[in-house]
Amino acid sequence: GTVLKDLLDCNMLPRVHLHEIFRQARESDIIVNAHKVNRGEMPSLRGNKKDFFFMQKNRPTDVIDTVLSLVEERLPKNMGFDPADIQVITPSRKQETGVTRLNPLLQAVLNPPHETKREKAFGGVIFREGDRVMQIRNNYDMVWKKEPAEQGQGIFNGDIGVIRRISFSDQTLTVDFDDRICQYEFDMLDQLEHAYAITVHKAQGCEFPAVIFVASLRQSRLLNRNLFYTAITRARSLLVIVGNAETVHTMVTNQRRQKRYGGLCHRLKGFANPASEV
Predict the structure, then answer these.
(1) What is the pTM for the complete model shown?
(2) Pick the CATH number of 12-253 from 3.90.960.10, 3.30.460.80, 3.40.50.300, 1.10.8.60
(3) Which end of the chain is more exposed for a tag (fewer CB within 10 A), N or C?
């Protein structure tokens, strides 16, 4: 649900609105443009930027070619980013420039087949040693180990890791989630998917050194200001938007979002004034 939004909408708790951008933050075009978008203003898409770039591409094929070039060569060569630190984010899964289309293409350039890398086919997907993957549902029972002797339970929806080992003798696939090592039996691989490209929804709560945001959809209910703001603020040091200005304008001006009805505000008011519940 939208717990924090519901709490604010109730007007029952103290609230502080932060609106001033301090000097250090003013030096970041990512932060400056994020504030513009939050106010319903178009971000600055032209001119020389330090950490915020826009690349106008209209055709989906041109968008895809540009994304692949940025990840494989241009950002590593020209700006010094390790491909492992670059995350592609897109609004959708199924569109021409969605996750389903982009992930196999990114895998092919970032982690192609090699005689030293074992791979396992599952559900029409090839998992390969060295692949970036994401856990796609909560698994509270998954045991993880961390050096030197730490151990715990729980890998959760949205956790991103790297496949370190595939063992056909053990029928297991080993994933490293930020030094938390987990073993998946082969029949558990439906809990994983490639994460070279992920949706904005899946990226919530995450931060990456460099982000490439695909903004090429013409018409979609997904395109709104909240989604765009979320995408921008996933980038720590660099954001590159690949797409068209029309899509950017659509996102900035569209404040509609999917409504959730959790009843939290009504319940809180009931606790504060029990007589109103009668």
Answers:
(1) 0.87
(2) 3.40.50.300
(3) C
